[in-house]
# Entry
Amino acid sequence: MATATRLVLTPADHGREIDPDEFEAATGQEGYKYEIIDGRVYVSPLPDLPQNDLEMWLFSKLSDYSRTQPGIISFLSPKTRVFVPARKKATCPEPDIAAYSEYPHHLPRSQRRWQDISPFLVAEVVSEERPDKDLVRNVELYLEVPSIREYWVLDPRPDPDRPSLRVYRRRGKAWQKPIDVPFGGTCETPRVLPGFNLVVDPDR
# Structure
């Protein structure tokens, strides 16, 4: 019996319409991130080291907080998938960081699925190659996920040693006016992460 050839995605597939099952079974050329958005392949380069450095810095800050506040963050991941079921076609952005208040620790790991959980906080580090992904596309997509109360955008431009932070906070079915925290400023989010104070400086 002939074995079906597994689809290998490449940057040339950006914008290609794809069946969700075919996307799930596909592999991808290394060096790129592949998402399915509105039933089409969305390709973006994996972050360069400066962006990855900032991602891990922010993750470490949230991880430190989660260890002291497991009742607020029960699960934190730098590699996650967020399903947007309200979209007509399959849509599943993959944020750089996602925090969950509810996680099925009681289930065997073989039964845990991204489709069954949804974060309350997501964060992205702006991509130099596709900044619109984080600054435009995801602003809309994450608003459509009712569980997400805040969306953070860490921007390394023009100097990754002096990043800034934009915070979107949900009010009903809309985002409030975004809060821009400059380099060296402090982000406080008492309703979502009580007691968490983030100084926007990757060397602190």
Observations:
- The two ends are 59 Å apart (CA to CA).
- The chain has two domains: 1-46, 47-199.
- Residues 49-68 form the longest helix (20 residues).
